[in-house]
Write a structure and sequence with these properties.
It holds the Pfam family Glycos_transf_2. About 45% of the residues lie in helices and about 15% in strands. The chain is an alpha/beta fold. The strands form 2 sheets. Strands 3-2-1-4-7-5-8 form a 7-stranded mixed sheet, with helices on both faces. A two-stranded parallel sheet has the order 6-9. Strand 2 (about 45-50), helix 2 (about 55-65) and strand 3 form a beta-alpha-beta unit. Helix 5 runs parallel beside helix 8 and helix 7 packs parallel to helix 8 (about 230-260). The model is unreliable at about 1-10 (pLDDT under 50).
């Protein structure tokens, strides 16, 4: 395992880092995604987390790992969702002494050239750095209008319900400092789909994390089918609504208590 990055390599000041790439039926993308990540930031390792893809993605990842020492593969028995895959990756990285873990999609939508900037933000003091589509300098390419509208509306609703200032709360391209992650009570996380990103963003804000948003250009996947579906959308909408009402109720209780004390 490579844990001695060249100090002259961009992003290396963040410390030993691993890029976690969850996969399910990504045989057309996995080789190019891993290669691009390795080339985009020579100081990092890559962990492919495969949920027993029936299309052979896991076997392709094994073949890559056999010829490249910086690549590792974590095989899981069944498809359990994005959240569970990343939680497994966090545990794997912590056990092996990494300081930073990066989340990156396998489908080519995240540009590996942005990896050094995400890691540099961690090196400069952030506990969470987010590749943001929705701050100045960020953008989305090749998305259908309805999908862009859904993403923007989800962000607006989430920020309003939870009182968040993070602009891209659903972003999937992000880096965490692993010692900070331990503060988030990860054993209580049960978000399955893309709601996982909202869940951890919300937990990070409540924990007082220093969060940095880095503008990125997000590009629609090169090949294969998107994993987004109605169940994933409903999960996010339901959870954010529940969390939001609970958050507002706590605010009201605190305001009421302060008012009683002042009387």
């Amino acid at each position: 395992m490579s844990q001695n990055p060249d100090r002259n390599t961009p992003g290396s000041d963040a410390g030993p880092a691993v890029v976690a790439i969850p996969t399910y039926n990504e045989r057309d993308n996995i080789e190019s995604a891993v290669r691009a990540a390795l080339d985009g930031c020579p100081g990092i390792d890559v962990l492919v987390v495969d949920d027993s893809s029936p299309d052979g993605t896991g076997e392709i990842a094994d073949a890559i790992a056999d010829r490249e020492s910086r690549v590792h593969v974590l095989h899981r028995a069944e498809k359990q969702g994005l959240g569970a895959a990343y939680l497994a990756a966090f545990a794997w990285a912590a056990e092996r002494g990494y300081r930073v873990v990066v989340e990156m999609d396998a489908d080519g939508s995240h540009d590996p050239a942005d990896l050094p900037r995400l890691l540099d933000a961690i090196a400069e003091g952030a506990e969470l750095s987010i590749g943001s589509r929705y701050i100045p300098g960020g953008s989305v390419r090749n998305w259908a209008l309805h999908r862009l509208a859904l993403s923007r509306c989800a962000g607006i609703y989430t920020r309003a319900m939870l009182g968040l200032r993070v602009q891209d709360v659903t972003a999937g391209y992000r880096a965490y400092r692993l010692d900070a992650l331990q503060k988030l009570e990860l054993d209580t996380v049960n978000s399955v789909g893309y709601c996982f990103q909202i869940d951890l963003t919300w937990r990070a804000v409540k924990a007082g994390f220093t969060i940095s948003e880095i503008p990125i250009v997000f590009t629609e996947r090169r090949a294969g089918a998107s994993k987004m579906n109605g169940a994933i959308t409903i999960e996010a909408l339901w959870n954010v609504t529940v969390w939001g009402f609970a958050h507002r109720a706590r605010q009201l209780r605190r305001a009421f208590t302060r008012g009683r004390i002042e009387e």
